[in-house]
Amino acid sequence: MWYFAWLLGLPLAAGFAVLNAMWFELMDDEAHKRAPPPLSDPGARHPR
Fold this sequence. Notes:
Low-confidence stretches: none
Organism: Roseateles aquatilis
Protein name: Cytochrome bd-I oxidase subunit CydX
Pfam family, one: YbgT_YccB
């Protein structure tokens, strides 16, 4: 009966890992949208 735990647990863990990675990507994208452009960017001060 141990194989039922593996059969249910592995897809659940893999699905959780995928959703967690997608959530982190979404949060990282939103943080980049809110952050000001870096000062080392030559086009940040004088856009053409």
